[in-house]
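INPUT
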Amino acid sequence: MTSFSSVPKNIEATLENSTVGMPRRNFLKSAGLLAVSFGAGIGSVQSAGAQTGATPQAAGPYIDPDFHQLDSWIVVHQDNTATFYVGKTDCGQGTGTSFRQLMADEMDIAFEKTTCIMGSTDNTVDQGGSGGSTAMERDAWPMRRAAAEARRVLLEMGAAQLGVPVDQLTVSDCVITVKGDPSKRVTYGQLIGGKRFNVTLTGANVNAATGIAKLKPVQDLKTVGQSPQRYDIPAKVDGSLKWAVDVKFPGMVHARNVKPPFAGAKLTGIDESSVSGMPGFVKVLSKGNYVAVVCEREEQAINASRKLKTTWEKPATAPFPASEDLFNYIRGAEPTSTTRPMIVGNPDEAFAGAPKLIEADYEIPFQGHTAISGAHATADPSNGQMTVYSNDMKSYGMRRGVAEFLGMPKEKVRVVWMEGPQGFGRTAADDAGCEAAWLAHELGRPVRIQWMRDEETAWDTKAPAFAVKMRGGLDANGNIVAYDYNARTVDYNHVGYNEPDTVLIAQLMGSRRANPDKGSSATPSEMYAIPNRRMATAVVRLPLIWETPLRTGNLRDPNGPQSTFASESFIDELAAAAKADAYEFRLKLLTAETKDDAAFRRARSIACLKAVAKAYGWDSRPSPNPRSTGNILTGRGIAYGFRGATVVAEIAEVEVNRQTGHVWAKRLVCAHDCGLVVNPSSLRHAVECGMLHSLSRAIHEEVRFDTEKVISVDWNSHPTLTHADTPASIEVVLVNGDPNPDRPDLPPYGAGEASCKPMLAAIANAIHDATGVRLRRLPFRDARVLAAINANRV
Amino acid sequence: MSNINLKVNGSTHTVDVDPSTPLLYILRNDLGLQGPRFGCGLGQCGACTVIVNGQAVRSCITPVSSVKSEVTTLEGIATRGRLHPLQQAWIDEQVPQCGFCQNGQIMTAKALLDKTPNPTDAQIREGMNRTLCRCMTYYRINAAIKRAVKTIAEARPGAEREVVA
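OUTPUT
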């Protein structure tokens, strides 16, 4: 039994050496710190054993670390360093560094003396990995409480050792001294280095895990609020980091998928002889409509996957309309579900009496993750177990999904999380993980799979397309008296994370859920006080819902950018119709009524709007910009919204080339309030990049398809933001808390997504300001903008 | 298959592969280098960039048999244990988000600065334009390149040296 023998060396070192003289798993196991859980794995014989009262035996070596044990979270070493084990993954926003800051401060250990291990299912407690921008908002709390508890326990040990009560001790960077007599001292390393705390935490679930120590008040935190450099960056710039794509084993083979050439196609034949003579050929593996080619070398697998002759039968009916017909299709489709409309006041009456009515239709196409590299995973089936090396942001979910997909007890399955291309939600990494595991299981050899560019761009999960009808009524003074938001979203059979029955390989093999996920839409996230308002949403479906490249899944603030594009563009249309300044118009809507201000969200909305206008130097005037003349037309646009408790207001300044239609966002300004700021540098960067992600969605990104297949399959047919598009200036104002100065303990909220939300509308509003043309269909590529300019004789 | 000699980062290697194999797979899978990475396999994104003859080359579409000069990868641009000024600037500006594309960003920037030591902003945008980042770290990349330009200029012989105690 060589449990670690096939682990890449750097991982092995991390796991083996994390505790003096003892592998991590043995360290936890020997203290009984692994929670033995039963029943989840298919064919779990232990459940029966447990029922008959026999001594429970785990079905495999990979037992969940117990979040109730302090030792599962923190190991202190003899040299006064510490390793933190957290059940999270860092998809590039620097959350690991921030966790270290928070835990180091609570524990009174220098940040530099700590390391952080993340997201390996058998070594770190299950905090779910990443998602929903919950790293600081939710998941950092049990980490902080564990660190505070470690400090408390160490102080008690120090008191016993030094023979004085705890209240006569002081601690600084792992050194406990007696107050007034610094010669009496003992270090954390001397007290517990390499040994276990054996301290039990309480709490009904991992989020509630806690000791009895109290957290420090925010004012006493030292590195929190500072910007120590991210620990992961040096190895990413000197080439030394081993990524999930770099995992290799002796005997490992390479696989490439052969995807159906048409959506919904049925595989009718494989001519293995078309590739069996190729160098390095190992095998063609197929089940249902899933096909993969396996070769000894990577380039051989790529070549063979392209040469393999397969025949397919097209579906009897077209799987979807062509992308240029999508919005008419959506408007004409029968909804699969609707929500009960949210109604304030009496909108029908208000519309009937409003002297000025405005209507507009907004159209947001499917947009993909289109990660910089194809989805990938490496799976090792050694010893009758399954280890998957993946960058999937939800490694714990992947472990459960893989175990269930293969019918293995989950104690025999682990997922080792390693760095990879960005994870902004339900990426195709989920699919690749199950594919690698299935292929390795079938072959009995370690398998590495990676999706090619066309696969990734065509077949990754998509953010839902939206068609939104907006109506507004203004009174004679330009006040909004009636408002109607009506969204239709293509999101039926929304794909969840690592679901063994909806991952693409399962679908291709014939898995069909009896009750597909009904999907969801969204209403605007703003705090405007409008006396008569109606908001309704509906979900519609495309003809093909299984085995389709147009499968929807979460992408960074899943429905937020789409709904906010419509709502914040339309507020601008109403402001322009009222001949009002766009910023002042919004401010008036926020200050109109202040009774319903849970979490100070309205007050913080006002603060963010004011902060962004001040930073930009906003001068009051209606849109469009009367001074915008010549070939380069200049305009500004403002938009705002919130994601959870995080509020964000943004201003974009654009230049529109009247001759070419090209849009350049020259300057972006953001006011961002996510409460307590842990690492300002990391936060600013995440906010900047979030804005640019939505800028890319605003001016470039669209999944295009004919009635058979996706036809945007690479960086030419699916363009993305480039260096040339980069703004000359980006400013981020960290509002950091509500306007009430008596709230220093404002908690941290999420920051990975909020800045994406308003940018699509801010760009649209700026283009309108520059040109007088209102664009309601994304993206704003040159040809579309130019056509609109010409049609409006700008 | 045939034996092909390849000089990479100062060392010579012989590999027995199909001569049409793209350089990328040799670097990654035979020589164990991790800097160059597969992004698109089409020469469109730049994640696989290496430097050959002073040119930034997309190794994913470069047959190994066509490589006649020494290949430099991300692992080979540090000198005597000191990071290249671009690598240091990448740390100082905290450029990466996920970091997957940054090999291509750094190597493309190096080839640019080797030819154009003092580029204008427009030259940086043009020179870097076909090197893609899906986390959208472009703004900090631009700042890091400008920072590295200064560092390199200051270290040049004849340039006024900072006095280090």
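end of record. The domain at 244-315+382-450 of chain A is CATH 3.30.365.10 (Aldehyde Oxidoreductase; domain 4).
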